[in-house]
Amino acid sequence: NLQERMPKSEIPELNQLRLSFNRMASSLEGVEQKRRELISDMTHELRTPLTVMRGYLEELADGTIDASPEIYQRLVRETRRLERLANDLQELSKAEAGYLPIHLQKVDLYPLLVSLVERFRDQLLEDGPVIQLDCANDLPLVCADRDRAEQILVNLLGNAIRYTPHGSITLRAQSKSRFLWVAVEDTGIGIAAEDLPFVFERFWRSERSRDRYSGGTGIGLAITRRLVELQGGQIQVESERDRGSIFAFSLPLA
Ligand code: ADP
Predict the structure, then answer these.
(1) Cβ(247)–Cβ(235) under 8 Å?
(2) CB atoms within 10 A of CB 14
(3) Are strands 142-144 and 179-186 parallel, antiparallel or unpaired?
(4) How many CB atoms lie within 10 A of CB 133?
């Protein structure tokens, strides 16, 4: 325990030094504790796809199951999940260490919103949700990093689509006092009230998402919140189980 290392002294100057030293020691211990937690969470998340893959590979090796396109597809799916986890973890560790460079500029979000809605619309399945944009075309400029703003929107729209099997997704934007608020509203599976406090925590996924909506990593919203905060904004969620969710974030007006 670092705090035990510098004993009390009779000399006032030394005691002052002791206090600063102890303060620094506790803050280092906090960092170390966080690092340990991150590694233990990461290991846990990596283990799940690896266990599934090993299971299939062992059964293929000893002939318990026959190689079939379906088995290979499952293996590919788990490999993709590992790949996504690796990418997300890299972003998360940069975000948590404060190493995500942010280049603030005056940005008009309107063209970005239009192009994202078009891009996501092209990816939607015929029986999936519909997506629409509902905002004025003369939005006030914000002071933001365009690419990071896009990353936030891609994460929120990706979630809205993933957790909205049918129904609709609406992207809205409007200014309120000195901020522009952008909201992604969906009519999907929603989040139970008791789960809401955890949604921005890394690796948290609702029971239901884990069971039925494969492909998630539980990292997107943790990164998203960090990206919003790094640009001086806030993120909020309102949701009701089986009714849908609204994720709204703000960016300062330019
Ligand atoms: P994931 O990769 O699992 O989607 P996120 O960090 O983006 O990770 O989200 C964490 C969890 O929050 C999700 O697993 C899901 O349970 C819940 N969630 C996020 N967005 C939505 C949404 N639009 N509707 C319902 N649940 C959501």
Answers:
(1) yes
(2) 13
(3) unpaired
(4) 17
* DSSP classification of residue 98: T
Cβ of 217 closer than 6 Å to ligand 1, yes or no, is yes
Q: Give the Å distance between the CA of 98 and the centre of ligand 1.
A: 23
Model-wide pTM > 0.90:
no
Structure tokens at 249: 């974030």
The average pLDDT across 118-143 equals 93
Residue environment code for 85-94, b if the CB has 16+ CB neighbours within 10 A, otherwise e: beebbebbee
38, 93 Cβ separation under 8 angstroms: yes
Distance from C-alpha of 72 to C-alpha of 67, rounded to nearest angstrom: 7
Instruction: Grade residue 214 by pLDDT with cuts at 50, 70 and 90.
Output: low
Q: Is the pLDDT of residue 140 over 90?
A: yes
Q: Which atom of ligand 1 is nearest to the CA of 219?
A: 6
